[in-house]
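User: I've been going back and forth on whether these two constructs are worth ordering. Before I decide, could you fold them both?

Assistant: Sure. I'll take them in the order you sent them. The first construct and its structure tokens:
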Amino acid sequence: MLLEMNLTEAKEGKRISAKGYAVQHKDDSFKPFSFSRHPLGDKDVLIEILYAGICHSDIHSARSEWKEGIYPMVPGHEIAGRVVAVGKDVSKFSVGDFAGVGCMVNSCGECSACKASNEQFCERGKTVYTYDCHDYFHNNEPTYGGYSNNIVLKEDFALKVPKYAPLDKVAPLLCAGITTYSPLRFSKIKSGDKVAIAGFGGLGVMGLKYALKFGAEVSIFARNKNKEKEALKLGAKALYDSLDVNEKFDFILSTIPTKYDPMKYISLLKHGGEMAIVGLPPMNEAVKNDMTRLVFEPNKKVYGSLIGGIKETQEMLDFSLKHGIYPETQIISADKINDAYHDLTNGKAKFRYVIDMKTL
């Protein structure tokens, strides 16, 4: 019934009715929430959301741990679904196609970063994130994410998903996949490299799988040995719960979302090694490092990495599907989001929770 109403709204140029789960403030729990999205534009697609992954970024955002959030907030930037309506000038999708949505839904499209498909670095500051963001192109209304039944966005920011793809596993690729794939590609990880993954949650698992496919020898650093069996089964050389190891690495990928000291990992790099940081602890837990410490770890490179542009995200998705690289997932119903958040913040979650949106 709601889908039929959405199709009528899209055809008549009206706002699109939506329902999902939201928090009303940073200390709130998730509850059902009804809202609307901007009308379907000439270059927009309307996607019926079938699956949405839960990312640790969702937790940080919902709890205003990075910045003061925009409430009510509907998180979710790991989205997979079916195109149910298209604007009159859409050429990339047809009704019935599968599509994915990651962390962005628009940008200026005109600056050098956007033209190079680095939309996440829009030089005009016009990157529109999938949720908890003001939509600069639609009267600055707040964006609402994937814990919902639909989404409307510019076709250029939707990812093409083949009909054979397992949508429940595609959804988490659109953050967890690209977040780890991008720095591994940037640092040109290749056969024979010694790689370490710091943190072994949803991001760490994907980092391990991609690094192995690129031919690297991969070790895991985790806070305990609880997931050692899983890590070894997936192909890791070893899982360490201490930094007291007699190894040096060509590359370290830090996915840690809690308080830690990056310098302790930098000391494990080989001369000329690189470390990419993709995990973001809460701002009040971030370690303030004295940059002069780097003088005593010379000729090592440290950089941050923020998802990837649309072109690279599509490349990652195609690569993952070709090689069967998927996250380890657990499907939950929408009314279990609060339980999932509890498990993720208390170290009880195995890997990636994915919400089945048919349960809304």
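The second construct, handled the same way:
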Amino acid sequence: MKDNRESADCCRELSEEYGLKEVHEANLKMLKEIDRICRKYGIRYGLDAGTLIGAVRHQGFIPWDDDADVAFTRENYEKFARVVRKELPAGMKFLEPSQLRGGEGFYDFTPRILYMNSRTHEDGPEMEYYEGRLNHLWVDLFIMDEQPECRIKAAWIKGLHTLIYGLAMGHRYKLDYSRYGALGKAAVAVLAGVGNKIPMRYIRRMQYSLAVRYHRGKSRFFYYSNYQPDFLYVTVERSWVEETVDLLFEDTVLMAPKGWEQVLNEVYEDYKTLPPKEKRVPSHSSTKIKVTG
């Protein structure tokens, strides 16, 4: 226990070094609220992505990470969504993708808990397009759905998710082609052009119908149906994620998938090794994050 406390203290000192002490405090408040609500209603969640790495490697936040991520199986997410609005304290809000621009805007398919007393980007046309809802610290809520055990069917499902995401991009504020090669740019332009002619509510319906298509309680595998396409490759086994364990996180304990090591090995090549120093930078904001409460 002493070693864990010393590691957590070291993590907090590094958070200050990277200028993220208040950011981590705000993210921790949101994580604690998610945890409180889930324990109250018997809902299971698991720390995910960089937040799970932080729990394992730092017993808290990765010192240079400026967001937080959790994941639910579909059943647990739907239980959470039914109760979260009445449970969240003042200053936090639950945002579903369907709430952007009256249901006709798209950023991604990820629900979030927002920390309203914060600002992560400069004001401008993009933030105005999203009605200021994306200009806050948040916790991403990822959803795991059953994946067909047949590899061909699984690849087909994930391919369809990628196409649907491309259609939805037609409802974004703007398209960023810088990350694509020539073929990718052409594909995104065509899909987004077609998607722009389809009401976003229909595209969301397609995404949801595809995500729950194989919910029969029989598959050994899950996938993250609302990840961005470049992370749709991730497949986890049911036994890794259906049960949870408590991991030390900062000054509390939070839930993590029972098979956290297998999950991290699946998602990352080497989660135990620190990245080069030049890559230890916050990655989710365009300005200095401001926390006002």
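Notes on the second construct follow. The CA atoms of residues 158 and 233 lie 8 Å apart. Residues 1-8 have pLDDT under 50 and may be disordered.
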